[in-house]
Each structure stands twice: as C-alpha cells, then as structure tokens.
Amino acid sequence: MLEELKKEVYEANMLLPKHDLVTFTWGNVSGIDREKGLFVIKPSGIDYDKLKPEDMVVVDLKGNKVEGDYNPSSDTATHVVLYNRFPNIGGVVHTHSPWATSWAQAGRGIPCYGTTHADYLYGEVPCVRNLTKEEIDEAYEENTGVLIADDFEAKSIDYEAMPAVLCKNHGPFTWGKDANEAVHNAVVLEEVAKMAARCEMINPQNNPAPQELQDKHYYRKHGENAYYGQPGQI
Ligand SMILES: [Zn+2]
C-alpha cells in the first residue's frame, strides 16, 4: 500500500540526519496522499541507520494506523491535526534542530532579519505558547497541533506563506507541498534561526529587514508574479 509514497517519505526522513537536523531518533517526517486521505510517517524510536522504506507506517486522518509493523511516530497526532486544518499541505516535519529549538526554548519568534529568511518564510516565524497542564494531560500531541492551527487562524497567518512554527520550550514544525519540501523548509528554518541568533549577538538592537525588501524577496519566489529560478524549483 502506498509503496511510492513510503519510499518518498523514507528518503525525506533520511535527509534529516544528512542535514544535521536530528540527534538519535529525534525527528519525524510524514507525507500524505490527499486522494486516499492517508499519510505515511516514520515509525517511533527506530534508528535512522536501521530504517527501511517498508518500515514506514500508514495512518488515516483520524489517527488510526492502517498498515505497518511498527507504531507510528509519537508525534503522529500533531501531524493528523496539521493535515486536517491546513488542507493544502502535503508533508510535515518535526525536529529538535538546535538553532530553531534554541529560539523555541527562549520562547521567541524569529524576526525576519534578512532576505534568506524572506525568500522562504513571510514575516516573523511565530512561537506558540506552552500548552496548559490540562491540554498536556488530555492529549498532548493532538493539542500541540490544535494550538498551532488555532494560533495561525487567530493571527491570520497564511500557513502557505509561513510553513514553519516554533512550539515554546519544545521545537519546530515545518510543512510544505510534499515531504521533501517540508524537509527543505526545516533546513532553511535552521539556517535562518542560526543567522538570526548571530545577528542579535553582533547587534542586540538590530531591527527586522524593511517590509518592502521582505515583500520583494518573498513575492519574487512565490505567487502568480514569481520570477525567481526555473519553473518547479524549490
Ligand atoms: Zn519533539
């Protein structure tokens, strides 16, 4: 079942250690088949060097395991909510990549200090609040997804223009049109988080990049008037 998607999601998962975004088994990638309403996700707690495409777990949009020898990632319920609430995404990534996680642990969104950030992420990367004790006790992973989606809705943040979020005292989630693009955005987020931290170290009074510069860089790569690169590139 979904053999092609399993291979794609397996390869996307293997990009996390390749790009130094994960330590041990911390991190997971999923990818969805929207027509079938099923997604494929990494199994929980399996070392990356032992992972095989056939180990990937198939899950439905209610969070039920449909196929697989292993239990799905412990963060599966967060992925379920993001797929349900963000209908145009095709892949989700969660890591504890150190620079993005440092901002999350500091409880701060990442301001847009330059065009590397603006090329991929429109505006400040939001940092959502801690879950309450009740939310944690009731359904930690599901409520993490609900919090992210509610926060984007409440602040009118376009999830397609901002394919990344930080969860306070935890770490980042990113997404994209497929698993590969979601990983690409996780790599970009980590680089941007690193540069923003260094930028504040060099100049603690630094201001975000001018809005017109942010707009220019974002919209030359995204939307109907985009002209950067070649068609189909990310
Ligand atoms: Zn985590």
Write the topology of this structure.
Layout: H1 3-18, E1 28-33, E2 38-41, E3 57-60, E4 65-67, H2 76-85, E5 91-94, H3 98-106, H4 115-120, E6 127-128, H5 133-154, E7 164-167, E8 171-176, H6 179-202, H7 211-221
Parallel strand pairs: 6-7
Antiparallel strand pairs: 1-2, 1-5, 2-3, 3-4, 5-8, 7-8
The structure holds zinc ion.
Zinc ion binds near residues 94, 96 and 171.
Concise structural overview:
By secondary structure, the protein is of the alpha+beta class.
Using brief descriptors, characterize the structure shown.
single chain, 234 residues, alpha+beta, L-fuculose-1-phosphate Aldolase, binds zinc ion
Helix content: 40-55%
Write down the CATH topology: L-fuculose-1-phosphate Aldolase
Number of helices: 7
Q: Summarize the main sheet.
A: 8 strands, mixed
CATH superfamily (homologous) name: Class II aldolase/adducin N-terminal domain
Write out the distinct hetero groups bound to the structure.
zinc ion
Shape: globular
What is the terminal-to-terminal distance? 28 Å
- Rounded mean pLDDT is 96
SS class: alpha+beta
List the domain count as a whole number.
1
Strand line-up of the largest beta sheet: 4-3-2-1-5-8-7-6
CATH class: Alpha Beta
CATH architecture: 3-Layer(aba) Sandwich
**What proportion of the residues form beta strands (DSSP E)?**
5-15%
Q: Count every beta strand, where a strand is a DSSP E run of 2 or more residues.
A: 8
What's the helix-strand series?
Answer: HEEEEHEHHEHEEHH
> Rg to the nearest angstrom?
17 Å
Poorly predicted regions are: none
